[in-house]
C-alpha cells in the first residue's frame, strides 16, 4: 500500500514537472525574437516606401498581439480570443511577406464560445507558413476552421503548399509521440504535449493529412465546454 502510494505521488510529481516544462516552452515561444526583429525590419522597409496605411495596420496588429500574449491572464481562453490573436498574427505575417498568401479564419457560433488552451493554434499556423508554404508563397492560402460538436472542439488548419510524403508524415508522427523533451522545440510537438498533459494520451486527437503537391491539413480535437 505504501509503495503504491509513493509511486502515485511520484507519478503525479513527474506529470506536474512535465506540465511546467511544456508551459515554459509555450511561454518562451510567445514572443519569438526573430519574428519581432523581422516585423520591425518590415516596418522600416514600409516606412522607406511611405506605405503609411500598411504601417498603421501592422502596428495595430502588433499591439494587439502583445496585449494578448503579455497581459491577457489565464491559460484557458475563449476560442474567439484565440481567433482574434491569430488574425493579428496572420496580418503581420502577410504584411512581412508582401501579401504573397491569403488567409481565412472561421468558426461556428458554439466553437467561438468554447474554452481552449491559450496560444494552441498559433504554432500550427506558423508551421503551415514556414514548412507548408515555404518559399513558394505566391498564391498561398492558410485556412483555420473551428467546429464544435458533441462536446468536442475540432480545429482544422490547412495550407495549399508543397505537402508531405508518407515518410515525412511518419517522421513527424514519431516525433510527436516521443516523450523526450529535447524534441519540444518543434511547434507541433509543443501543441501535442500540452494536449496530452491536459487530456491524457487517449483524450484528444491529432492527425495529419497530406500528399506531395496537395498541401497539408492538421486536425486537432479535444473535449471543450462552452461554459466560461
From TrEMBL:
GO molecular function: phosphorelay sensor kinase activity
Alphabetical list of Gene3D superfamilies matching this protein: Histidine kinase-like ATPase, C-terminal domain
SUPFAM superfamilies, per the entry: ATPase domain of HSP90 chaperone/DNA topoisomerase II/histidine kinase (SSF55874)
Cross-referenced SMART domains: HATPase_c (SM00387)
Domain of life from the UniProt record: Bacteria
Catalytic activity: ATP + protein L-histidine = ADP + protein N-phospho-L-histidine
Domain Histidine kinase/HSP90-like ATPase: 116-226
EC number: 2.7.13.3
UniProt-listed InterPro entries: Bact_2-comp_sensor_kinase, HATPase_C_sf, HATPase_dom, Sig_transdc_His_kin-like_C, Sig_transdc_His_kin_internal
Keywords: Kinase, Transferase, Two-component regulatory system
GO cellular component: membrane
Protein name listed in UniProt: histidine kinase
Species of origin: Cohnella rhizosphaerae
Amino acid at each position: 500500500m505504501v509503495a503504491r502510494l509513493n509511486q502515485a505521488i511520484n507519478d503525479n510529481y513527474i506529470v506536474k514537472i512535465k506540465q511546467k516544462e511544456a508551459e515554459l516552452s509555450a511561454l518562451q515561444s510567445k514572443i519569438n525574437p526573430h519574428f519581432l526583429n523581422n516585423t520591425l525590419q518590415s516596418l522600416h522597409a514600409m516606412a522607406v516606401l511611405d506605405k503609411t496605411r500598411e504601417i498603421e495596420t501592422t502596428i495595430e496588429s502588433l499591439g494587439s498581439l502583445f496585449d494578448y500574449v503579455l497581459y491577457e491572464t489565464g491559460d484557458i481562453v475563449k476560442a474567439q480570443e484565440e481567433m482574434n490573436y491569430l488574425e493579428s498574427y496572420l496580418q503581420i505575417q502577410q504584411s512581412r511577406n508582401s501579401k504573397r498568401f491569403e488567409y481565412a479564419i472561421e468558426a461556428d457560433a458554439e466553437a467561438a464560445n468554447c474554452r481552449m488552451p491559450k496560444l494552441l493554434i498559433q504554432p500550427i499556423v506558423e508551421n503551415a507558413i514556414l514548412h507548408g508554404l515555404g518559399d513558394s508563397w505566391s498564391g498561398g492560402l492558410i485556412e483555420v476552421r473551428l467546429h464544435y460538436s458533441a462536446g468536442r472542439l475540432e480545429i482544422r488548419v490547412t495550407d495549399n503548399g508543397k505537402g508531405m510524403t508518407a515518410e515525412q508524415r511518419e517522421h513527424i508522427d514519431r516525433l510527436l509521440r516521443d516523450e523526450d523533451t529535447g524534441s519540444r522545440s518543434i511547434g507541433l510537438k509543443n501543441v501535442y504535449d500540452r494536449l496530452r498533459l491536459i487530456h491524457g494520451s487517449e483524450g484528444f486527437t491529432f492527425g495529419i493529412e497530406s500528399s506531395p503537391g496537395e498541401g497539408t491539413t492538421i486536425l486537432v480535437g479535444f473535449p471543450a465546454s462552452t461554459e466560461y
